[in-house]
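Question (not urgent): is this output format expected?
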Amino acid sequence: MALTLPAHADPLTDRIQATGLLPELAHGLGGPFHYLLPERFDANLAAFHAALAEAGVEGRVHYAKKANKASVFMDRCAAAGAGVDVASPGELRDALGHGVRGEDLVVTGPAKTGHLLGVAARQGALIAVDALDELDRVLALGGARPARILLRCHPPAQPRSRFGLDGAQLDEALRRCAAAAGTVRMEGFSFHLSGYEVRPRTDLAGELVELCGKARVLGLPADRISIGGGFAVDYVAADAWQTFLAEQGPGHYHAGKAFAREDFYPYHSPVAGADALRAILAASPGGTGPSLAERLRQAGVRLLVEPGRALLDRAGSSVFQVQGVKDRAGYGIVTVDGTSLSLSEQWFNSEYLPDPVLLGDRAGDGPAEPFAACVGGASCLDSDLLTWRKIAFPARPRVGDLLVYPNTAGYQMDSNESPFHELPLPPKVVIDHPEGGGRPRWRLDR
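Got this back:
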């Protein structure tokens, strides 16, 4: 038996599929493509801003650019006055080139180059300093205005993390910043936690608020903290997810492949997106006393967040065309016109689990027989499968049919893309919906 795991119903994507636009794009573009829905990005960004406002917390949302390279999302950040989290000279240039102001950028990542630090400082970006030697490089810049920095803290709950300054290093960093008044402006602290749990973020944020008070005693501004990203996306229903986890095993996958449960992304999350931010703010650090929101207000500390995937929830999907179907004992192998390099989860010892949707003209056909099949890529690699799981398709796919992988804008589309075999990278298509309805319009992302 094939296991099903359908994505949450989405009326907007259903309407797009009903217009016939996707087959036209597949024909015109001559290969796989991703489509983007910028209005969804706008709505997700507005939801995060609303969560801050409801809690009475002053703050800023920085879009984690690494989650998707599309230019349209930079345009949306610039138009909304939102911030952007960048971690390379290329990301910094792209954000500035699309109109995002330098002071609205936060520069993260380890061991930043001197060039990146220099450009970031001149543009007024906020630099998350990850190590003492990096702090020394910032102090040596000697620009016309002080470099704006945060000190990134090593998370005690994740001692194996390679990022951040431990307690002794933080003390030394604060001493150096205080001694270098006028050279740097130490505006606060930051952290980034792996995983998606609320409580560790609330607890560590409370500790950072206290650190701001310690830094102020030394004469440093320390008026903001960043809690990074890690706001989950809820892809599928709770009952479907629990059933899948309980029943899945090697027999459900091509070649008997086994996946460890802990390696799957949590495709169902009861608290996701902006609601996760609300939960973090409403909880009390350490489990007692005022909420985090109240402590931020009392201390006059701003809260910075850096969501990536959560701002891209339902903001795009990936479309592949069927090139062939072959049979194995009890199931089939569907081959599409792209590779698993364009669906990045497959390259992290895991699987992108929401079911792809089969689109094809079955008018005039009789009753369809369900057909279980995995989905392979067009390369010569035996391991090139977009979906190892035997998907329960409603009918046998045919050459020319489309497979639409839903909700792939967050990290799936372009983290590991490669023009392997000289296959072109799937282009990104921006789909806009005219006010008052009507057929959607499209354009290529610049």
